[in-house]
Amino acid sequence: MADLKSKFLKVYSVLKEELLQDPAFEFADNDRKWVEGMLDYNVPGGKLNRGLSVLDSYKLLIEGRELTDDEVFLSSALGWCIEWLQAYFLVLDDIMDGSHTRRGQPCWFRIPKVGLIAANDGVLLRNHIHRILKKHFRGKPYYVDLLDLFNEVEFQTASGQMIDLITTLEGEKDLSKYTLSLHRRIVQYKTAYYSFYLPVACALLMLGENLDNHVDVKEILVEMGTYFQVQDDYLDCFGDPKTIGKIGTDIEDFKCSWLVVKALELCNEDQKKLLHENYGKADPTNVAEVKALYNNLNLQGVFEDYESKSHDKLMAAIEAHPSKSVQAVLKSFLSKIYKRQK
Q: In angstroms, rounded to a whole number, what is the distance separating the alpha carbons of residues 71 and 77?
C-alpha cells in the first residue's frame, strides 16, 4: 500500500501541473501562483482515504494481477477527482459553518489574504474535476457514465448539505424535529454517496461494469457511510481535537447530530428541558451542560453498542454478496473505518 500511495501522490503533481497549463485560460504568473498555493493547501492535506480507495478497489476487483502503469495513473486520476470534490465541498462548507480549523490548520477562508475569495476558489476546484476528466477519459467508452456519476453525486451531496443547513436555521431552532430518520437523510446525501459509493463506482466503471447491475453494492456502501458519519458525530464531541485535527462544534452549531438524536430518545422530561435550554448555544457553559448530560445518559456506551451492531450487520450483508472480489473491496472499506479514532 505504501508503494501505491507514493504513486498516487505523484499523480497529484502531474494533474496540478496540467491544470496550471490549461490551454483554455491564459495564465499570468500571479494567477498560477495563487491556484497552486490554493491547491496545495486544500487538496492533498487529508487522509486521502477516498482517493486511494479508487486505486485500492480497482486492484481488488481485478483479483491479483499487477496493475499496468496506465491503470495506476487512471485510477489515481479518478481518486484525485474525488479529493478535488472533497476539497471543493470543504472549502465552501467551512465558510457556511464559520469553522476555524480543518485538518489541523486554519480553514482556507480564515487565511487573511484569502477571505471570501475562497468562495470562487471552491468553484474553481469544482471545475478542475471536469478538466481532469476531459483530458484523461474523453476517449473512454465509460466517459459519459463518469460525468453522469460525478454530476449525480455532487447533486446528492449539495442537497444533503441543504437539508443540514436549513435544519439549523437561526430563529427556527426546534429540537423536536431532530429524529433518526432526518439524521439518516442528511448523512446519506451529504456524506455517504461521495465518500463511500463514488470511489467504488469509479473503479467499477473503469472495469467496464454497468452501475445499474450493482445497486446492492451501493446500498451496502451507503449503509457504511451512515455508520461512518455516526462515528464522526461521536468524535466531534468525544474525540481528541489533536487526533481528529479540528475542534468539534456540533453542539454550538445546533447540528442534527446522532448524539443529540439519541439523547432526545433516552432522556426524561427534565433532561429534555435542559437540552432545549443549552443546545445550539456558543457559550462554553451551555456546551459543558450538554456534554455532562451526554455523559449521564452514557452515550459513549450507547455508541459502542451501535458500533458493534453496525459492524455485524454490515459484515453479514457483505458476506451474502456473490462476488468474492466485491466482498474484498467492501471488507477493505469496513476495516479502515471500524473503531477509528479520527
A: 10
